Structures are given as structure tokens and as C-alpha cells.
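chain below, 131 aa
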Amino acid sequence: MPSYTFGKNEKLCSQKLIGEMFLSGNSFLCYPLKVVWKSELLLTPFPAQVVFSVPKRLYKRAHDRNLLKRQLRETYRYRKHELYQLLEQKEQKIALMIVYIAKEKLEFSQLELAMTKIMVRFKKVLETPPV
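prediction:
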């Protein structure tokens, strides 16, 4: 049975690694979310480390940004086991950043749908060999 937790070790905190992801990481857009990731040699027992971001430029009030990040963490928490299974099969570890890019606040169900699309897209991306 999958674990539906999201602990401290699963959160990406390294400013250096986050900067590297923006400079040389891979990305794709799955509206209302943008995903940036980089295959890394992470020193963690988990296959993925994740950080969530909501731009201050789009949402000036902190409580709006915090609400959206909380909802994103919750949707990821329910779907992460799909990603973990795939990464364990491929014996990979990745650093992942999920950025909320919509200008309007969306319902939780719409965020869940977007997260599901992201997991499907990751399956396609990780199963295709690099060029």
C-alpha cells in the first residue's frame, strides 16, 4: 500500500540545486502548472525531492500563495506513489519543482486533474530514451 505522507526529507531545500534546475533542467507546461526537473544524485532515501512555488508577482497576498501551495502539496501527496514506482523501476532520482502559473485561483479538483496529467506526462518523458 502506498504511503500518503510528505515528510521533510521529501522537500527540496537546496538553493544551489534549485538554481541549477532553472539553468540546466528540463521542463514542460501542463496548465495551470509548470514542471521543472533535473536528474540528480540526491542524498536521500526517496526517489524524488519536490519544491512548490507560487509567484509573488501573480499573488500579492501571502495567504493566497500559501493556500495554493498547500493545495499543490496535497495533490502531490496523493499522486506521488505513481512517480516513485516509475523512478524506482528506472533507478533514478530527480529534483522536481512545480510552479503554479495560472492568474486565477482554481478549484482543488482542477489541481488534482493537473497533477494527474503531470504524472502521465512524466511516465512518457521518463520512458523515452534521451536523445
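Helices lie at 15-24, 62-90, 108-127. The chain has a mean pLDDT of 90.
thats it, cya
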